[in-house]
Each structure stands twice: as structure tokens, then as C-alpha cells.
Amino acid sequence: MKHPSRAVLFASVCCLFGSGLGSAALAGDLGAAFHALPIDTRVAIQSELAEVDLYLADPTGDWSAATERAVLRSVETIALNSGDRVHPKLKTTRSMQTYLEALAEGSYATYLRPGDYSAGSAFLRKIHLGG
């Protein structure tokens, strides 16, 4: 697998710390939301993130620093690739679980992969963005 570009990583770090997403409290809540999901869903999340080179370890379903980084990067990748039209919110445990479940289902695949995002309007109507 290749690593994300330096520009994407830099933008992710800036956005994460600028928005407060990089806090330890969020990481703990995100880890708890992840562990509340069934093992097959957790593996599916890591597999989806690995497919787009955000998760660089073997999908095991275990929470780790690599999983945390990949999930947080995915939020920013989606925002960047959608021109900030889609920005998943990770403010509550429920919104975190909703986002993670959507990742596992491939609901954000359009914005995690480079390409044409013109189908964004239908995508926005189709998924729940959390809150």
C-alpha cells in the first residue's frame, strides 16, 4: 500500500488540531464507539480504510493508534475530496458509531477515493451525517 500524500496528511493534521478533533477525549470516545460495534463491522471499517491507503496495518478489528489515525484522516479526506460539502461530525458517541457503521458499509467510498464527485447531492440525501 502507498502512503497518503504529504499534502493530505498536512491538511489532516491542521484540520484535526484546528477543530479540536485531535483531543484525547475524542480518541477515547471514538475508541469506545469502535469497540461497541461487532467484530465483523470493525474489521470492515479497517478494511475499507486500508483499501484507500489510510489504514496501513492488517485489519484485525482491534482499536489501535493506527485505527485512530485512519478514522480521523478519513473524516478529513472526505471533507477535502468533497470540497467540504460532506463533513462527518464526531461530536457524540452515537454520531461516531453512525459514521463508523457508514464506513463499514462503504457509504463514504465515493469521497474516500480520488475521482468524480458530481454524485454528491444524491450521496448527501442517502446517508446520515451525524450531529
Strand content: under 5%
Name the helicity range.
55-70%
Overall 3D geometry?
globular
> What does the main sheet amount to?
none
**Spatial gap, N to C terminus:** 33 Å
Q: Total strand count, please?
A: 0
Please give a structural write-up.
This protein is mainly α and 131 residues long. It has one domain. The chain has 7 helices and no strands. The protein is globular, with a radius of gyration of 13 Å. About 8% of the residues have low confidence. Keywords: Signal.
Note the main attributes of this structure:
131 residues, mainly alpha, 7 helices, globular, signal
Write the layout of secondary structure elements.
Elements: H1 6-19, H2 24-35, H3 39-51, H4 65-81, H5 93-105, H6 109-112, H7 120-126
Helix pairs in contact: 1-4, 2-5, 3-5
Concise synopsis of the structure shown:
With 131 residues, this protein is an all-alpha fold.
